[in-house]
Amino acid sequence: MTTGDVVEGRSARILFDSGSAVVPSDTSVRMSGVLGTLGAEPGTHVRVSGFHDASGDAAANEALAKQRAEAIQQWLVVNGVSVERITLDKPAQTTGSGNADEARRVDVVVE
Fold first, then answer.
1. pLDDT exceeding 70 applies to what percent of the chain?
2. What residues pair up with 46 in beta bridges, in sequence order?
3. How many Å separate Cα 16 from the centre of its chain?
4. What's the angle, vertex CA 52, arms to CA 18 and CA 32, rounded to 5?
5. How many angstroms separate the CA atoms of 66 and 69, rounded?
6. In this structure, what DSSP letter does residue 18 have?
7. pTM value?
8. 86-88 and 46-52 beta bridge pairing
9. Cβ(10)–Cβ(109) under 8 Å?
10. Helix or strand or coil: residue 63?
11. Element (H, E) at 105
12. Residue 70 backbone dihedrals phi, psi, to 5 degrees
């Protein structure tokens, strides 16, 4: 899910503060539907994708996007999702114009 709307119970978008990989305080609210779906559908997996924008150092941005995705992976594990059900995508740079907050995100999609 690189663009588009969040699908109730099937996806979530977690927005991070600039320069931070600390899991935001609203993550439980944003992820409640995903956790519910994963609990109700034990055969499903979840894909976690970290994104960054083009400003600044590309390598540092990519590393931060990876740290954010790993932080959400760890959050999922702490909340009862087995690591075998989680796929981490390679960090990706957002394209086009838009809100910088949207570029500092992790998308989570139930598959």
1. 89
2. 86, 110
3. 10
4. 75
5. 5
6. T
7. 0.89
8. parallel
9. yes
10. helix
11. strand 105-110
12. -65, -35
